[in-house]
Amino acid sequence: MSFTESTQPLLVPPVLPDTSTRRLRVAQGILLLFHGTGFLGLAFSQDPAFYLQFVPLNLLLTALLLLAFQPDRSTMFAVFCVVVMAVGFFVEVAGIRTGRLFGVYEYGATLGIKWLGVPLIIGLNWLMLTYMTGILARYLPVSGFIRALAAAVLMVGMDVCIEPVAVHYDFWSWQYNLIPLQNFKGWFAVALILQVYFNRTEFGKRNPLVPFVYLLQLLFFFGLSWFIR
């Protein structure tokens, strides 16, 4: 071997970042931008109405990004999504008409177009929360029913953070301006039923974006609740 050949540097191809990791970082950045802008606008703006008009869009964007990272978008998963959205929506219809499930309340204008007195986006919100908390509970090394209980608790925990913000910004309003304990009991009961259904439906139950979205939304609503007191 000649001297020239022996000293010629080896051409090593550059190490490219993993595509899935880059996609995840981009999605997290988009969500952080939307939630951060919304937080600053609602907390400090003199005209929060401008930012409130984007609430349905933010929910829709978050849901689409979550679904983009769902590895198994099979027919069974599609059926699960439709069933949970339908159950969530019509539970709310029954709730506002009877006042027996969650207490006496009505929806405001912030969440957009309504049907039967309930914003259409509400079904999607039930799906997102059921899906995220169900996946988070799968990190627990416990039986399926205990996971369902844990996921239902996570759903109620999110609702506790959402309620003061939702009332303040006219997502919905309660009779006598009081959030009843019945609301959280009703939420837990419906959430538990949906989580049992989640556990019994066969589809891939992992999503790398879920922990980030749940924590981001938790911080978003918890943080806003401090500014409106």
From TrEMBL:
Taxonomy, superkingdom: Bacteria
Alphabetical list of InterPro entries matching this protein: CruF-like
Presence of keyword Nucleotide-binding: no
Protein's UniProt keywords contain Transmembrane helix: yes
Transmembrane segments: 26-44, 50-69, 76-96, 116-136, 148-167, 179-197, 209-228
Pfam families per UniProt: Caroten_synth
Keywords from the named record: Membrane, Transmembrane, Transmembrane helix
PANTHER family: SLL0814 PROTEIN
Record protein name field: Carotenoid biosynthesis protein
Species of the source: Hymenobacter fastidiosus
